[in-house]
Design brief:
Layout (H helix, E strand, L loop, with lengths): L1 H19 L3 E2 L1 H4 L7 E9 H10 L4 E4 L7 E9 L4 H7 L5 E9 L4 E9 L5 E8 L10 H9 L7 E15 L4 E13 L5 E3 L3 E9 L5 H8 L9 H9 L6 H14 L7
Parallel strand pairs: 1-3
Antiparallel strand pairs: 2-11, 3-8, 4-5, 4-8, 5-6, 6-7, 8-9, 9-10, 9-11
């Protein structure tokens, strides 16, 4: 296990070195990119394949930079009902379905209460309001926001799973797509007090403007990285709470375990 951790740290250093050779793009410049007819596609791979992807993307993509770093740090807490309504909506493949979360952008110290809604056509919309910290209360319209979005108030939901992860954001030179790359995902279950992590797993999400040409798609195909759904809330829940219904995710965890280099079913 010690050698595995050492190897992951060395891989992170190589990823950081590859990012340093990519031209930076600032948050202000990122705000100019408006994907009006956005489509989202997720991919799951390993850190080894990520290094190959970053090599292929040299000279074709900008890397978002905040301060001196091109790797951002995130913390997210998911909220659910006592009977895990939002988790079960996803597990049972219901649509439309929703998730409630509080996300902190740790490098800029901004926190938002967010509701994500996935409709019957696979499109995801996000509504959010800024909050002062991860511990939300009914003040400043938060209660009204939740009632309006999910028809439940703070008395009906509670924190269930918290994650922390690192994110790379790439933008193609044509500024028609944005690529988020998440890794080093750590979970803490606030109900069971169990922890888990995803090892060498990497979650990629491609957000692009309609069906315009995407340079990264060809690179992903070249590396045999296939489209694959991934919910941090659901995977984190399954990995840290054995009491949840999880039939839909069992075979998925075996596949993810092969990519991550860890046994994601039993941590």
């Amino acid at each position: 296990m010690h050698q595995f951790i050492v190897n992951l740290m060395e891989t992170d250093t190589q990823i950081a070195n590859l990012l340093e050779t990519m031209e930076p793009i600032t948050l202000e410049q990122m705000s100019e990119i408006r994907l009006m007819n956005r489509t989202d596609t997720k991919f799951v791979t390993s850190k080894h394949k990520l290094m190959q992807l970053l090599q292929l993307a040299q000279g074709k993509y900008y890397a978002q930079q905040i301060g001196d770093s091109k790797v951002a740090n995130y913390m997210t807490t998911y909220w659910d009902t006592d009977n895990h309504h939002f988790y079960l909506e996803h597990h049972n493949r219901r649509s439309p379905r929703q998730k409630v979360r509080v996300r902190t952008y740790m490098d800029s110290n901004l926190t938002f209460l967010e509701v994500k809604t996935k409709n019957n056509h696979g499109r995801t919309k996000k509504k959010r309001v800024e909050v002062p910290c991860q511990e939300i209360t009914g003040a400043n319209g938060n209660e009204e926001f939740l009632l309006g979005q999910v028809h439940r108030g703070l008395a009906d939901i509670h924190p269930t799973v918290r994650n922390q992860f690192q994110r790379i954001t790439l933008v193609n030179h044509g500024k028609t797509e944005r690529l988020t790359i998440d890794y080093n995902v750590h979970f803490h279950n606030m109900e069971t007090q169990r922890d888990a992590d995803t090892g060498a797993l990497v979650i990629i999400e491609l957000k692009r403007d309609g069906n315009v040409f995407s340079p990264i798609l060809g690179m992903l195909r070249q590396l045999r990285i296939q489209p694959s759904g991934f919910s941090k809330y659901c995977i984190g829940s399954v990995m840290t709470n054995s009491r949840l219904k999880q039939n839909f995710f069992k075979s998925r965890l075996v596949t993810l375990g092969k990519l991550s280099g860890t046994n994601m079913r039993n941590q």
